[in-house]
Amino acid sequence: MEIACHSCETVVDVPVKDEEFQAWKGGQLIQDAMPNLNKDEREMLISGTCTFCWDVMFGEDLRANDEQETKG
Q1: CB neighbours (10 Å) of residue 48?
Q2: pLDDT digits (tens, 9 = 90+) for 3-60
């Protein structure tokens, strides 16, 4: 699935199976519906924001903190 970033219009190809997309739209958590996607790919689906624009808007520090929290 090709998605254009709403800020910079960069097109990102996110490999999503139809059944995964339907599960997510049906209410399943995106990380459960699409376990093979990384967080940047999931964010493109959720908000339409690419990694570069996310870092510009929220800073790389936020991304580093998020990664620390998921590691445990």
Answers
A1: 14
A2: 999 999 999 999 999 999 999 999 999 999 999 999 999 999 999 999 999 999 888 6
* Owner of token pair 């999931």: 42
Question: Of 11, 46, 49, 50, which is closest to residue 31 (Cα–Cα)?
Answer: 46
The range of the structural domain enclosing residue 56 comes to: 2-71
CA pair distance 49, 26, nearest whole angstrom: 22
- Assigned token pair, 36: 């093979």
DSSP codes, 12-65: EE----HHHHHHHHTT--HHHH-TTS-HHHHHHHHH---HHHHHHHH-HHHHHH
Model pTM score: 0.75
Domain count, the chain: 1
